[in-house]
């Protein structure tokens, strides 16, 4: 069996500063959209806006563990 190398490490070889700037811009845009959305979802759910923000932050820390997984 070949040595397994995660795709993350393979992609780092091609990563450059321009790609970093594009990723940074995308992250900022997503944050700008997600902030009012999480507040609105908290209010619509009948809880405080703070609860919506806390849920969004917790989701941001949990989601990467399932990103790109094939659950079959």
């Amino acid at each position: 069996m070949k040595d397994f190398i995660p795709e993350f490490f393979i992609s780092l070889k091609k990563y450059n500063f321009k790609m970093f700037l594009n990723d940074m811009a995308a992250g900022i845009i997503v944050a700008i959209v997600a902030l009012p959305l999480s507040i609105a979802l908290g209010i619509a759910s009948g809880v405080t806006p703070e609860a919506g923000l806390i849920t969004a932050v917790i989701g941001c820390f949990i989601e990467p563990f399932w990103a790109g997984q094939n659950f079959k």
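The first helix runs from residue 7 to 12. The helical segments are 7-12, 17-44, 49-62.
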